[in-house]
């Protein structure tokens, strides 16, 4: 009885669960424009334009695309800032958004701005928005424990403080691949030679990432006109950000309450319903409308602001990389045979190289073959998404 | 001593035939001796017999109620201590009321009723006269039900000599005999060896005037018997002849003039009212209170009916009843589940009272009597009222096995919830905050514990649960949809007792007893949970993984009776909940209630004055981010004062009126920084104070048994002191009428309107721990609604099944919905995020209910709809474009089955089936990329339905044995919740993975949940 009771209790509380579910929903309406516009006066602005996709797109990616004829911004003094498709083109093959850049580097502060989009059959505009003076980023600091590194930011609201901010950031760091290439393979002779490459020059690279995340912050409840040590970002000790030197650039903008409510609701609605007490999701109106057909649905939001930025570095003295369990790697090493199935020639043809002998402590003595072979990303930082071009801002 | 001797002699004189006898005529089948009640039956198999010696009836003579009846077929039930007589061979026996039997003979044996003959201290029941003399020797046989798990009928295989002996049957009747001697005016119990010793002494002059007796002992030679009546000589004590006159007969009749009488003996003849104002056969009003003999507690729901006129009524929560009877002789019957039936002979002279005490009964009631309770429903105008007995509540299977008030209420037609383990419930299309939940008259703002898994009410404390879905009495107001009234039982006035329960997640203890016997009693109980250590062991994919949770609650009740008409009650309740879902965020909430009630009863009516304090608080503690760490508290407090009166006005009117005053103090948000590093600015939203005075008046008019009409009005006003806004509520109307063309068929209709000044602020489907309340003010108008309903009610007399069909239609205005993205916490401009809406609900509820027999329970089907519509046009943002849209609790089809099958008097099996249409939710129609992430574009609010809900629960209940003298009684329940293991969805949500939406379903109880519950009564 003593054992049964706790087992029953555990079983009962353990019964709440989440299961896959694919309901039969209506087809998404076609031709719904999506605009993600961020005019940042004083620098180049980006406006992403695309369309809403169905929840479960077909195999041919037959998502309805809207034919966009023109994207531009204008101020209430008559200034027009044409948008051109960025040389990056679409940001990602799976993201049905086209990136437009607008040269608002010299756009004057003090006017109201709006974004306009002309499609084949309609004209869409945003509200007129007055840019607000950005907050002052006073400090970026870091906290770390054995598992994570946290990036915190302290800001002051500035003269146009509304109690609401929008933060974003991009990262750049120097990393190395998991393995240094100590061996070479001669496919003609099917032999592995040690230390033939004395200085593997694709061990270290730079990597940059801009996730495009926008983090709305409400500091109306703070005793100061700003926030202190706001937890902006964190990454794991296992991450290659910890290898040598890491940099983060924080961008801050002042937004109004309406913008904050929109963005906050968007965050809450994303994945809402996964616990008992999340608010019911629903559509919240953005600040875009279709001038041609007022009842036509349009999604997205446009912000107009000026921004302040600050970059900070974390040196290796603060970074502590935790080595991954070699048997739990995403891309474990393979141990092939000199000939026959999974031969060395096979591995080489797939871009694998011998990385470690089978006698090292972290090799698997139970496997056959004297070498552990790894894919290119294991030893080539280019293949791991890096570049050896030093960013212009980089400081060692 | 002398008096007793005289009485005994007088009784025995009648043996000689000098009493006023009607022996020849009265022996007829319809004579008075055959007008008793039906004997108890034992629905389980047993060996042995409960009769004195053997099952066969024997002929004898009975002196009963002043008459002597001869040549009567009779037997003695030694278990129930009753004399049974049988009019004809093969007919059902009738129990003769013991308190009117002086003596009888069975065969050659003489039995006497010592209490009747004046020996008041003697045990109840009949005594076999073994030997008369100066010190009569007597024997009394008692039978007890015993249980032998090995079968065989028990010790020495009792009953083995009979033809129907069954060795595999474990129950048997075991005999116990005691011996007594009458000496020095008292009854003294003696041992058998003393008996043997006394038998050796000279008998002396007979006290009982019986000069010959032989006795029977187990180890001695049998053959025993007493002298026949013809052998008994006269008294020789020179009694006055006038003893047997009418006047002397009247000494057996207890007379009460004006003041209510207290009937403590069955079937004495009682006079009600004042003979001086007797107006013959004209109708009179009889009232009184029914209480339990052991505890003195008022009994609710006792059926009171008159044999002659077939008039019925039922006692109210205070045990009071009122019934119109014709003048003259009547037989007033009192019956209640689990109580000894009473049939009181009354003579009604004028309006008057009769208080009645009922004792516990071990065996099941006869169906014919219990169905009278169903019949009583045809006598009142109540409609849409559901009563849940505690016994039924404890048998309904629930998750984790504990009897649960809210879960029991959810099995009733017309009551829904948005999902498993959700905190609130919805009645006939109303939101959760439109239900007034009262516990001993105090308001409970959050009626659940532990995310909604348990209700706030300790089942061991609860005595009464009533839900008013329509026909809400005028004494209740302040909520638009329903009133759930839960009362705790008063402490036992006679002895200390209690119960302890052990379940999978909780334990509870309840103790009650007299502080001053018969005057002051206390009832206290508490529950705790030990779910914390369990949650730490949950698997990671559980929805509760990483969390901690716990609750505790305590109840207190003190009752003091000043006299029969005045009592004071003090109640207290405290409940505290705490839980954490991972991280450093903790939710806490608690209920505190305290109240004092004075109850007064006079000849013409009842008065109740009550005052109390209610408080509900909740706290959110977010300490994860040091610079932003805070505590957020909300409070709602209310102080109330109420005076309620009821009065019978003439024969046909019952008036009720009262005045209520409620003062609200609501703190919608107090934000406090936590920790030295916190930069959070302390803020407090302005406190809201309000006053709500109300006055009500209602009258129930019953000119005939077929027709009755109830009308009432409740006038309330709301003063929002924050902004000096005053709302003069429209008078809330109550109208109900009933027409019963037959005694088992009635038609009812009603119309209610209600006003609500306080609102729950919640934009989640289920009531969440951080939901707060808001008073009406200049920006938020009171909610107002009306409901019309009609129904047909029919009781099938042969089976006792009640059938009912009710239709309703309901409209509300200024109910509240929320803008998408509404910010509810610490929002000084909350009204900007609230949307006033119209509400519309309609439906039909069909139910079949059976409360008697082996199989009890109910089966119901409800078709209902609930919609909302914005009251104003907000352009493109108007929900559903301004059309009606589904309310979150709109579930068109609902089917419920609650049933209990009594295998024996101890073992029963319960089955619950619950089916309903899936609730409406808002689902996305597409995805799009924005702000670095995939987002969902949502469709019209509540336009999609999650899969239907279906659940079956089973439970096996083992009730205590019927050993009334045992120190402990144990109840064990073993069951399985959701026996089919269906993964009933609570909600659905979508996550986007590289442009492809993955749908998920959240189920709270996604598998079978076995449970064991142990309850000990002591």
Explain what this protein looks like in three dimensions:
The complex is a heterodimer of chains A (396) and B (1018). Chain A is mostly beta strands and 396 residues long. Chain A has four helices and 21 strands. In chain A, the strands form four sheets. In chain A, strands 2, 3, 4, 5, 6, 7, 8, 11, 14, 15, 17, 18 and 19 form a 13-stranded mixed sheet that branches. Chain A has a three-stranded antiparallel sheet with strand order 9-10-16, with no helix packed on it. Chain A has a two-stranded antiparallel ribbon with strand order 12-13. Mean pLDDT of chain A is 80; it is low at 1-13. In chain B, a hairpin with a 3-residue loop joins strand 39 and strand 40 (653-673). The longest helix of chain B has 12 residues, at 2-13. Chains A and B meet through helix 1, strand 1, strand 3, strand 16 and helix 2 of A and helix 8, strand 57, strand 58, strand 62 and strand 63 of B. Strand 1 of chain A pairs antiparallel with strand 63 of chain B.
Compact description:
Chain A is built from 4 helices and 21 strands.
Distance between the termini of chain A: 66 Å
Total beta strands of chain B:
64
Give the rounded overall mean pLDDT of chain A: 80
Q: How much helix is in the residues of chain A?
A: under 10%
Query: What is the number of helical segments of chain B per DSSP (H or I, 4+ residues)?
Result: 8
Give start-end ranges of low-pLDDT stretches of chain B: 6-27, 209-267, 362-372
The percent range for helix content of chain B is under 10%
| Average pLDDT number of chain B | 79
Q: Kindly report the greatest chain-chain contact and the residue count on each side.
A: A-B, 82 and 95 residues
Low-confidence stretches of chain A: 1-13
Shape descriptor of chain A reads: globular
Order of helices and strands of chain A: HEEEEEEEEEEEEEEEEEHEEHEEH
Percent of residues in β-strands of chain B: over 45%
Main beta sheet of chain B, described? 22 strands, antiparallel, barrel
């Amino acid at each position: 009885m003593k054992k049964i009771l706790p087992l029953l209790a555990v079983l009962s509380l353990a019964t709440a669960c989440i299961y896959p579910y694919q309901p039969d929903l209506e087809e998404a309406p076609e031709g719904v424009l999506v605009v993600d516009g961020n005019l940042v006066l004083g620098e180049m602005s980006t406006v992403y334009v695309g369309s809403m996709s169905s929840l479960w797109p077909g195999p041919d990616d037959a998502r309805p695309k809207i034919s966009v004829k023109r994207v531009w911004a204008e101020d209430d003094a008559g200034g027009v800032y044409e948008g051109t498709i960025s040389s990056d083109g679409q940001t990602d093959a799976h993201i049905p958004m086209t990136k437009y850049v607008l040269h608002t580097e010299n756009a004057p502060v003090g006017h109201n701005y709006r974004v306009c989009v002309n499609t084949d059959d309609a004209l869409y505009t945003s509200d007129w928005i007055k840019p607000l003076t950005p907050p002052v980023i006073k400090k970026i600091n870091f906290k770390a424990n054995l598992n994570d590194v946290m990036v915190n930011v302290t800001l002051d609201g500035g003269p146009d403080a509304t109690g609401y901010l929008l933060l974003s950031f991009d990262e750049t760091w120097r990393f190395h691949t998991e393995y240094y290439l100590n061996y070479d393979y001669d496919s003609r002779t099917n032999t592995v030679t040690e230390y033939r490459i004395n200085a593997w020059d694709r061990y270290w690279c730079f990597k940059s990432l801009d996730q495009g995340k926008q983090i709305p912050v409400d500091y109306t409840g703070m005793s100061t006109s700003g926030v202190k040590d706001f937890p902006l970002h964190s990454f794991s000790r296992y991450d290659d950000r910890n290898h040598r030197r890491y940099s983060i650039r924080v961008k801050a903008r002042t937004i109004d309450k309406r913008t904050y409510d929109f963005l906050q609701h968007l965050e809450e609605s994303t994945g809402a319903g996964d616990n008992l007490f999340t608010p019911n999701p629903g559509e919240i109106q953005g600040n875009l409308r279709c001038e041609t057909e007022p009842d036509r649905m349009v999604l997205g939001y446009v912000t107009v602001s000026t921004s302040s930025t600050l970059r900070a570095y974390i040196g290796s003295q603060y970074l502590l990389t935790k080595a991954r369990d070699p048997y739990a790697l995403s891309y474990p090493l393979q141990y092939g045979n000199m000939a026959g199935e999974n031969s060395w020639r096979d591995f080489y043809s797939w871009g694998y190289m011998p990385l470690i002998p089978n006698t090292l402590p972290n090799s698997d003595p139970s496997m056959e073959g004297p070498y552990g072979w790894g894919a290119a990303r294991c030893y080539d930082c280019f293949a791991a998404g890096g570049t050896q071009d030093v960013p212009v801002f980089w400081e060692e | 001593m002398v008096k007793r001797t005289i009485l005994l002699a007088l009784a025995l004189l009648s043996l000689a035939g000098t009493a006023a006898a009607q022996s020849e005529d009265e022996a007829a089948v319809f004579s008075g001796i055959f007008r008793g009640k039906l004997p108890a039956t034992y629905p389980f198999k047993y060996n042995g017999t409960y009769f004195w010696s053997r099952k066969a009836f024997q002929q004898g003579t009975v002196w009963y109620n002043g008459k002597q009846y001869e040549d009567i077929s009779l037997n003695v039930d030694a278990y129930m201590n009753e004399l049974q007589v049988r009019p004809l061979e093969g007919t059902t026996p009738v129990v003769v009321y013991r308190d009117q039997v002086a003596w009888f003979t069975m065969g050659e044996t003489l039995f006497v009723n010592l209490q009747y003959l004046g020996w008041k201290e003697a045990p109840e029941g009949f005594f076999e006269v073994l030997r008369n003399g100066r010190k009569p020797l007597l024997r009394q046989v008692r039978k007890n039900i015993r249980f032998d798990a090995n079968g065989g009928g028990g010790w020495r295989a009792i009953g083995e000599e009979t033809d129907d002996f069954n060795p595999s049957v474990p129950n048997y009747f075991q005999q116990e005999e005691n011996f007594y001697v009458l000496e020095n005016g008292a009854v003294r119990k003696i041992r058998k060896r003393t008996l043997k010793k006394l038998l050796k002494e000279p008998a002396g002059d007979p006290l009982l005037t019986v000069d010959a007796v032989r006795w029977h002992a187990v180890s001695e030679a049998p053959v025993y018997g007493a002298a026949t009546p013809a052998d008994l000589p006269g008294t020789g004590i020179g009694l006055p002849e006038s003893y047997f006159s009418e006047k002397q007969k009247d000494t057996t009749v207890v007379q009460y003039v004006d003041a209510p009488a207290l009937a403590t003996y069955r079937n004495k003849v009682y006079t009600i009212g004042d003979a001086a104002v007797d107006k013959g056969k004209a109708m009179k009003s009889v009232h009184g209170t029914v209480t339990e003999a052991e505890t003195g507690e008022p009994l609710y729901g006792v059926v009171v009916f008159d044999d002659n006129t077939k008039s019925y009524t039922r006692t109210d929560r205070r045990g009071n009843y009122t019934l119109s009877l014709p003048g003259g002789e009547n037989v007033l019957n009192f019956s209640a589940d689990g109580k000894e039936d009473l049939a009181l002979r009354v003579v009604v002279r004028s309006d008057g009272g009769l208080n009645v005490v009922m004792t516990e009964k071990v065996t099941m009631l006869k169906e014919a009597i219990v169905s009278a309770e169903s019949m009583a429903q045809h006598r009142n105008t109540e409609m849409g009222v559901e009563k849940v007995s505690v016994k039924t509540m404890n048998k309904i299977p629930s998750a984790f096995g504990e009897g649960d008030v809210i879960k029991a209420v959810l099995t009733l037609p017309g009551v829904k919830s948005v999902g498993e383990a959700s905190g609130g419930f919805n009645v006939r299309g109303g939101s959760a905050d439109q239900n007034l939940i009262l516990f001993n008259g105090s308001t409970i703002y959050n009626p659940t514990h532990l995310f909604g898994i348990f209700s706030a009410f300790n089942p061991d404390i609860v005595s009464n649960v009533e839900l008013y879905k329509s026909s809400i009495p005028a004494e209740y107001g302040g909520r638009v949809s329903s009133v759930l009234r839960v009362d705790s039982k008063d402490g036992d006035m006679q002895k200390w007792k209690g119960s302890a329960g052990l379940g999978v997640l909780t334990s509870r203890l309840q103790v009650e007893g007299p502080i001053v016997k018969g005057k002051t009693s206390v009832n206290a109980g508490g529950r705790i949970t030990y779910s914390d250590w369990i949650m730490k062991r949950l698997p990671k994919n559980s929805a509760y993984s990483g969390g901690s949770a716990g609750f505790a609650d305590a109840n207190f009740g003190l009752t003091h009776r000043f006299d029969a008409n005045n009592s004071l009650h003090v109640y207290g309740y405290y409940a505290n909940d705490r839980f954490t879902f991972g991280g450093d965020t903790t939710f806490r909430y608690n209920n505190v209630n305290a109240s004092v009630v004075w109850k007064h009863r006079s000849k013409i009516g009842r008065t109740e004055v009550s005052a109390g304090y209610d408080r509900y608080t909740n706290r959110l503690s977010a300490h994860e981010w040091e610079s932003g760490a805070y505590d957020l508290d909300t409070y709602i407090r209310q102080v109330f004062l109420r005076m309620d009166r009821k009065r019978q006005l003439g024969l046909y009117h019952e008036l009720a009126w009262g005045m209520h005053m409620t003062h609200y103090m609501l703190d919608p948000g107090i934000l406090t920084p936590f920790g030295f590093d916190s930069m959070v600015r302390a803020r407090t939203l302005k406190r809201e104070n309000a006053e709500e005075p109300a006055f009500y008046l209602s009258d129930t008019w019953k000119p005939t048994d077929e027709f009755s009409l109830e009308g009432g009005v409740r006038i309330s006003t709301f003063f929002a002191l924050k902004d000096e806004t005053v709302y003069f509520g429209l008078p809330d109307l109550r109208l109900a009428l009933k027409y019963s063309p037959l005694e088992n068929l009635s038609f009812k209709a009603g119309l209610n309107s209600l006003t609500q000044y306080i609102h729950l602020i919640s934009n989640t489907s289920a009531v969440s721990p951080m939901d707060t309340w808001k008073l009406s003010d200049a920006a938020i108008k009171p909610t107002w609604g009306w409901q019309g309903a009609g129904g047909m009610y029919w009781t099938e007399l042969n089976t006792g099944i009640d059938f009912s069909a009710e239709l309703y239609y309901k409209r509300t205005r200024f109910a509240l919905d929320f803008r998408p993205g509404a910010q509810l916490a610490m929002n000084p401009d909350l009204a900007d995020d609230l949307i006033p809406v119209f509400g519309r609900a309609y439906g039909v509820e069909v139910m079949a209910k059976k409360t008697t027999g082996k199989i009890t329970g109910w089966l119901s089907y409800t078709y209902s709809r609930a919609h909302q519509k914005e009251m104003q046009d907000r352009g493109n943002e108007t929900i559903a474009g301004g059309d009606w849209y589904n309310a979150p609790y709109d579930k068109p089809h609902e089917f419920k089955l609650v049933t209990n099958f009594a295998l024996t008097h101890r073992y029963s099996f319960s089955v619950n089936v619950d089916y309903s249409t899936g609730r409406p939710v808002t689902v996305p129609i597409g995805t799009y990329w924005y702000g670095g992430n995939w987002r969902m574009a949502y469709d019209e609010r509540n336009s999609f339905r999650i899969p239907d809900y279906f659940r079956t629960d089973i439970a096996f209940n083992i009730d205590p044995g019927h050993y009334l003298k045992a120190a402990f009684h144990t109840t064990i329940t073993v069951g399985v919740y959701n026996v089919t293991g269906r993964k009933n969805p609570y909600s659905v949500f979508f996550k986007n993975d590289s442009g492809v939406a993955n749908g998920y379903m959240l189920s709270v109880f996604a598998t079978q949940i076995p449970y064991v519950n142990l309850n000990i009564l002591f």
